[in-house]
Amino acid sequence: MAAEFLRTHGIDLQDEMSNVQFPATSTSKPTSNTPANDQRISRKRIHEIVNVRLPCRDPERTWDLSLHDDRIYSIDLHDPQGQDTTGALQILYGNGAFLLPSLCHPHVHLDKCFLLSDPKYSDLSIRKGDFAEALALTSKAKARFTPEDLLRRGRWLLEESIAAGVTCMRAFVEVDATVRFKCLDAGLSLKQQYRDACFIQICVFAQDPVFSGEAAGENRDLMKQAVQRDEVDVVGSTPYVEADETNMKENIDWAIDTAIQCGKHLDFHLDYNLDESKNPMVYYVIDALKRRGWINRAGDKKIMLGHCSRLTLFSSDEWYDLQRQIQDIPISFVGLPTSDLFMMGRPSDPKDGSSRVRGTLQIPQMIEQYQFQGTFGINNVGNAFTPQGNCDPLRLASMCVGVYQAGTKGDAELLFQCISTSAKAAIGCGNLKAPKFEEGDEADFVIFNTNASNGRRPKGSVAELIYDPPGERTTLYTGHVVQLDMG
Q: For residues 281 and 239, is the Cβ–Cβ distance under 8 A?
């Protein structure tokens, strides 16, 4: 069937003179037939993927996928005795590897990644490790940002992410009186350079106050200019950095109004504390969205609420009440566990032996028990907010088995959705669905070399991938194998 499909599109397997084979173990580099703007990226169009295992299907069987127009055209049971396609162009041989939907960063800061790895910022090392210090160190670093510096570190993040199987992300870039449009310009340049390997959704982000402090007015004006650029997808702000609750509410109102007026998604860093005496601002956000008619005025645009550590102190009744208040507003919550675990739950006395609460949203419970839309992401990597971790969402999901105490097979499958299909849906880049492939689905995949060849320990399920993430992967974006020159 696959050969017939290829023949209908002008490809005769018997006439092909070269062979492409990129199983997950392959280290060969394809020659791009559609080169990206940046020569670090090479792509090879694939018309068929043969002999791969798929999620939500019999793990003892393998399958063949035919691709057309960057989507799945057909899925057929693999026949080992079928027509020999050896020597055929645009065939990817899986050799029993595991093919899954590609991964997604729903929340990652592109401009301040890897500051702790860059010699330029070696004097800005962590001393205390708290949030105030992280803000101060990052502010000092921002004053030194240059286009070359931003592009260099941004490439590190993008290339490590793509190699891990990421083909979609929401990338935050800050706009304020210190950096003005440096971070945004670098982010847009990277979005263009890596367009053939990953969809990069740009969020212009007000990390600094826009209603309190001497630079508030300038910060707000710069953000307004930035949001009006067509290449920008999201408005982001941080109400909790404002001086008081009145300014926080002004920040929220302004961000909602700006997003609606400019036709953008909306993303808040919100309620980043574990203080029961503080009123959760999530209620004000919901009320402001209703008063401003988000559902009727914002079209298909979505809202993301990040961190929200204060909500971890909620009782079950408060969670159910919050869900009732949200109703049909398209709100998703994103947990940021690597940052939250590092920043939250510290005892007032560092030498105190008292308990240290997790302080991060319990995303699986929010999804399964309270019916919220939720996901989680790496947020920061290699800076004072989050010195640990890397760009691999699967390794983050593996860590979350312990963080969320989510060890069942069903838990693991949910964790995978949170770094793949659910994450894409949360940022408006796909539909919320289980990772079961169907005809017409986008051809964005990650292939894991999980078979038992060469004496390897086999990993025959999504749960086993989550428990112990394999390193060898092949990334496909829009029906193309993506290779990066990371030298």
A: yes
Q: Which tokens belong to 63?
A: 């399958």
Q: Is the dihedral angle over the CA atoms 294, 202, 269, 208 positive or is it negative?
A: negative
Contact between residue 309 and residue 272 where contact means Cβ atoms under 8 Å apart? yes
Pull the structure tokens for residue 185. 């310009």
Cα–Cα distances in angstroms (integers) from residue 462 to residues 54, 128, 256, 313, 373, in the given order: 10, 39, 38, 31, 21
Number of Cβ within 10 Å of residue 188's Cβ equals 17
53 vs 426: CA distance, rounded Å = 27
Task: For residue 344, give both structure tokens.
Answer: 């939250």
pLDDT score at 382: 96
In the predicted model, is pLDDT for residue 260 greater than 70? yes
Work out whether the CA dihedral 320, 322, 325, 328 comes out positive or negative.
negative
Question: 84 Cβ partners below 8 Å, 6+ apart?
Answer: none
**What is the distance between the alpha carbons of residues 73 and 48, in angstroms, rounded to a whole number?**
10
Alpha-helical runs (H) found in 43-181 = 131-142, 147-164
Residues 370-394 have a mean pLDDT of: 96
Q: Contact at 8 Å (CB) between 337 and 399? A: yes
CA 33 from centre of chain: 28
Alpha-carbon span 396 to 419, nearest angstrom:
9
Per mean pLDDT, which range of 109-113, 168-172, 307-311, 482-486 is the poorest? 482-486
